[in-house]
Amino acid sequence: MASKLLRRVLIVSDRSPRPSSRSLPGFTSSRLFSSSNSQPLPATASSPPPPPTTVDPPSSSSASKFGSKIRNDSVRSSIKDPELAKFSAIADTWWDSEGPFKPLHLMNPTRLAFIRSTLCRHFRKDTNSARPLEGLKIIDVGCGGGILSEPLARMGAVVTGIDAVDKNIKIARVHADLDPGTSNIEYSCTTAEKLVEEQRKFDAVIALEVIEHVANPAEFCKSLSALTTPGGATVISTINRSMRAYATAIVAAEYILHWLPKGTHQWSSFLTPEELALILKRASVSVKEMAGFVYNPLTGRWSLSDDISVNFIAFGTKDGQ
């Protein structure tokens, strides 16, 4: 029954329009990635909720405060308290490659390939070097258990990993201590907004699979921009608010394949590539490249593509001063 329903989901999703990075307005440059396997992501309940008929625009008044989950007292942040509770409940499974974060573990090599390529080109680093990010100060916003921070550190970057869930940070520290190669990571239970107040600056600011969980994407992007040095880089990945994404990233992944806990994603919280590019532009970050992530169920692997209809990642640069 589940497999029959999955086939129907995939058939419906294939009929949805597939926007390409070619159609995005305002790019000074655009790099297209090709893939011969553009299969949609099988995403994670018995009866999935219908997508909302309307989507409320991001509101600048929806910022929330954290309580005891932040090491310091309440800190202004755009992340929603229910999202903190959701991820705190599964924090122990960050390094379980077969657990709730399995999709991120599978996607990680592809995410890193995009980050390595774009940062090396922008900062004129040797992508073939064993430590191509040597000398760069990078912040991993919403680092979770550190599954992205650790490989960035092994590539030579001085990494700051921050997360609003204290349990995530404790797990990240314990795991990083197991490898001397990740000693150049500083983990902190805090928020991007707090570091802006401290006037911290980084060569590259990375926030992967985070913006769809914040209450105010525009304010969040302003914080990311404020953390980026003029001429520095910003990398964000998220899920497109398309019907194809609803069918695959919610219905399939959460309700059929149970890759993710039910309710992990809210379709109305997704941003389209055009919306993300506009929000970043208003925050003084110009999107230069965008690529999609596609999942091949036959190989169990992800690859980069110019299909940005479901999962996509954007690279931008902070306007110089």
UniProtKB/TrEMBL annotation:
Pathway: Cofactor biosynthesis; ubiquinone biosynthesis. Keywords: Magnesium, Membrane, Metal-binding, Methyltransferase, Mitochondrion, Mitochondrion inner membrane, S-adenosyl-L-methionine, Transferase, Ubiquinone, Ubiquinone biosynthesis. Residues 1-74 are annotated as: Disordered. Gene3D superfamilies: Vaccinia Virus protein VP39. It catalyses: a 3,4-dihydroxy-5-(all-trans-polyprenyl)benzoate + S-adenosyl-L-methionine = a 4-hydroxy-3-methoxy-5-(all-trans-polyprenyl)benzoate + S-adenosyl-L-homocysteine + H(+); a 3-demethylubiquinone + S-adenosyl-L-methionine = a ubiquinone + S-adenosyl-L-homocysteine; a 3-demethylubiquinol + S-adenosyl-L-methionine = a ubiquinol + S-adenosyl-L-homocysteine + H(+). GO terms for molecular function: 3-demethylubiquinol 3-O-methyltransferase activity; metal ion binding; polyprenyldihydroxybenzoate methyltransferase activity. One of its GO terms (cellular component) is extrinsic component of mitochondrial inner membrane. The keyword Flavoprotein does not apply. Mg(2+) binds at residues 209, 212-213. InterPro entries: SAM-dependent_MTases_sf, UbiG_MeTrfase. It is a peripheral membrane protein. Pfam families: Methyltransf_23. One of its GO terms (biological process) is methylation. Belongs to the class I-like SAM-binding methyltransferase superfamily. UbiG/COQ3 family. O-methyltransferase required for two non-consecutive steps during ubiquinone biosynthesis. Catalyzes the 2 O-methylation of 3,4-dihydroxy-5-(all-trans-polyprenyl)benzoic acid into 4-hydroxy-3-methoxy-5-(all-trans-polyprenyl)benzoic acid. Also catalyzes the last step of ubiquinone biosynthesis by mediating methylation of 3-demethylubiquinone into ubiquinone. Also able to mediate the methylation of 3-demethylubiquinol into ubiquinol. NCBIfam families: UbiG. HAMAP family: UbiG. This is Ubiquinone biosynthesis O-methyltransferase, mitochondrial. It comes from Punica granatum (Pomegranate). The gene is LOC116206215.
